[in-house]
Amino acid sequence: MSDIQGEIETLGMNARKASRMLATTDGQQRDAALRAMAAAIRDSAPTLLKANQKDLDAGEQAGLDAALLDRLTLNAERIEAMAAGLEQIAGLADPIGEITALKPMPSGIRVGQMRVPLGVVAIIYESRPNVTADAAGLCLKAGNACILRGGSESLQSNQAIAQCINKALASAGLPTAAVQVVQTADREAVGALITASDYVDVLVPRGGKGLIKRISEQATVPVIKHLDGVCHCYVDAGADLNMAERIVMNAKTQRYGTCNTLETLLVDAAVASAFLPRIVTQMTAAGVELRGCEQTQAISPSVGQASAEDWDTEYLAPILSVRVVDGLDAAMAHIEQHGSGHTDAIVTTDYARAQRFLRAVDSSSVMVNASTRFADGAEYGLGAEIGISTDKLHARGPVGLEGLTTRKYIVLGDGHIRQ
Asked: Are 21 and 62 in contact, with CB atoms under 8 Å apart?
């Protein structure tokens, strides 16, 4: 066994022990720890900034681009946001111990389900050091121990944040091993962590497609993940075009680099001549590059030609693919072939077509007359999220506190025996 494998095994054993202890705590104790974490982060702001500056200096020397450096940067505002986020999590309802569907059986026993923690959650992420606090807070609120492996570029920042968290856990009487940060930047640690099935119950990767693809292919631990966010909006023949224009513009331009940003616009041929010139003018004014099919180009010659690859591309940039389709069935066929199962929307005033779209489109979020940018844990009332899942088992869509728990059956009897 290598030193790194041994380190991951030790983290796993400690996390497993801590998870058993957390399972016996009540929500008030975990909330007290979350508030203590927030206070420790605020009090340690100068220390966090110094650690972050070391990461930034190393990143500049390594040639990280401006966007990566921005995601890596901590400042007073972002530190306060971390602390406020932990306090927000503390204010959410405790999901643990909830009993549902309790009902009597013919035998006389009562059977129900209780919500319980997953156990040990490993989170592998890149760049943003605030994820260390967010992930730790969500896992703790849901009664889980967590092992956090941030990117090498944020190692100093993550370790400094972890020290604040561990201090707060101890002050609240909780095991410090409830939140552990992998101390090495060696990539071997990722391989050891994603195969630590004796200790880790679930993995949550947060980062680029390459990272998530590697983890999905190599992990022996169950993974909560999504690979791509190729999100669609279909403007139906029955759409209010003013509404459609507002929705499409917001879905694409409100933020470019998120997984719920619109990447492909589908327009019914019946309204294409009326709608496309309007949206092309607005998108062009916003600095968005448009790539369209032949019918789109015939209506709006300023639009560039879309390649076959464009329909499958998550741009995360001011680029939008546009296609004219022959009705709802053609739109849904396009989404089925090219979609990633993340978020897809229809704009229409036709109730029957809206219902068909909701039933037939197989994505983790399906919307009627709303921007795809709403596919977010906070917008869904989850309070916060650990990420998005396009999988179909356990958690799907934004993964909040309930997604970090599971259920077990409970049976209540009074001396009952099976006949």
From this structure: no
The pTM of the full predicted model, rounded to 2 decimals, is 0.87
Residue 353, classed as helix, strand or coil, is helix
**Mean pLDDT of the region 181-194:** 92
Residue whose token pair is 């630590």: 196
- Specify the residue for token string 């790194």: 4
Q: What DSSP string runs through 114-177?
A: EEEE-SEEEEEE-S-THHHHHHHHHHHHTT-EEEEE--GGGHHHHHHHHHHHHHHHHHTT--GG
Q: Which of 412, 22, 365, 399 is nearest to 204 (CA)?
A: 399
Distance (Å, rounded) from C-alpha 39 to C-alpha 84?
9
pLDDT at 362 over 80: yes
Tokens of 403: 């997604």
Instruction: Find the farthest-apart pair of alpha carbons in the chain and give their distance in angstroms, rounded.
Output: 79
Question: Which residue has tokens 């009897």?
Answer: 413
Average pLDDT, integer, range 196-202? 96
Residue 178, number of CB atoms within 10 A of its CB: 28
Read off the pLDDT of each residue in 241-246 and give the average, rounded to a whole number.
98
Write the pLDDT tens digit of every residue in 247-271. 999 999 999 988 999 999 999 999 9
Whether the CA torsion 71, 75, 77, 82 is positive or negative: it is positive
Q: Which two tokens stand for residue 282?
A: 């607005």
Contact predicate 376/385, CB 8 Å: yes
- Give the single-character DSSP code of 374: G
Helix or strand run (H / E) with residue 250: helix 241-253
Beta-carbon contacts of 65 under 8 Å, excluding residues fewer than 6 positions away, are none
At residue 209 the predicted structure's pLDDT band, cuts being 50, 70 and 90, is: confident
pLDDT for residue 193 is more than 70: yes
Domains and CATH numbers, the chain: 3-224+394-412 (3.40.605.10), 231-379 (3.40.309.10)
Token match 């405790």: residue?
Answer: 94
Q: Is 138 exposed, middle or buried (0-12, 13-18, 19+ CB in 10 A)?
A: buried
Of 264, 418, 398, residue with least CA distance to 331: 264
Q: For the segment 275-300, what is each residue's pLDDT rounded down to a tens digit?
A: 999 999 999 999 999 999 999 999 99
Number of H helices, E strands in the chain: 14, 16
